[in-house]
Design brief:
There is one protein chain. By secondary structure, the protein is α/β, with parallel strands linked by helices. The protein has twelve helices and six strands. Strands 2-1-3-4-5-6 form a six-stranded parallel beta sheet, sandwiched between helices. Strand 4, helix 4 and strand 5 form a beta-alpha-beta unit. It is globular and about 55 Å long.
């Protein structure tokens, strides 16, 4: 069943990629936007059935203010948050603001689609394992907050960090090889190692994970330092 929706994300490339994938599955995507501000007004004016709202920082104060305004002015719009592996505070904040669901950014398109349909039907759209993880963390809090971006960055070598940055910038194997002064076969091997270490199956997924967790910002700084910029 077709859903009329909007995709709103700070990373335009990711928003457009998700919107295109959902259009191919028969849904009516009103817009794929990445405003730094004004997200709520954009959604309210277009009045979709469902809004997919991306965020890299679900636990940050005020990040769900657009959800509060959307639900206040257009309560019929179901908002599903797309974010990284959330802390209990992140999930709690999303639902407290009025969100109908929370989906991990690395979820398969089928999972996103199921969440959209459930949210439109007025049901809570959140994977049971996310709730379980959140309750586990609440009952057994870590002494230090988990920084997924820093953890993932530690798994990569300096050369792999540079490869990840280039992948996120849209470079293909040939451009990566030319930019790094290595053979295409070597560049291809580096890319595969990056995908394996990050636990993703494609370059787009790697770029999405890097952007959502803050790994891309950290990696860009590390790669620039390595290049002597």
């Amino acid at each position: 069943m077709s859903v009329r929706l909007m995709v709103v994300d700070d990373h335009r490339l990711l928003a457009e990629a998700l919107a295109s994938a959902l259009k191919l599955r028969g849904h009516r995507v009103l817009a794929a936007a990445a405003p730094s501000g004004g997200a709520a007004e954009l959604v309210i004016n277009r009045a979709p059935e469902v809004c997919l709202l991306g965020t890299a920082t679900p636990a940050e104060p005020g990040v769900f203010d657009p959800v509060v305004r959307i639900k206040r002015e257009k309560p019929q719009i179901a908002v599903v948050v797309l974010g990284p592996v959330p802390s209990p505070r992140g999930i709690a904040s999303a639902f407290a603001a009025g969100a109908s669901g929370y989906v991990r950014h690395d979820e398969r398109i089928e999972g996103v689609e199921r969440a959209m349909v459930k949210a439109r039907a007025g049901e809570a759209a959140v994977a049971p394992q996310l709730l379980q993880q959140s309750f586990t963390e609440l009952l057994n809090p870590a002494t230090e907050p988990d920084d997924e971006g820093a953890r993932l960055l530690q798994m990569l070598t300096p050369r792999e960090v540079e490869v990840l940055v280039r992948v996120a910038e849209g470079e293909d194997t040939r451009l990566i090889a030319a930019g790094m002064g290595i053979a295409p076969s070597t560049a291809r091997t580096h890319v595969q190692r990056v995908l394996m270490k990050l636990g993703v199956g494609s370059r787009l997924e790697a770029a999405a994970l890097a952007a959502r967790t803050g790994l891309l910002d950290r990696a860009s700084g590390t790669a620039a330092a390595g290049r002597g910029e």
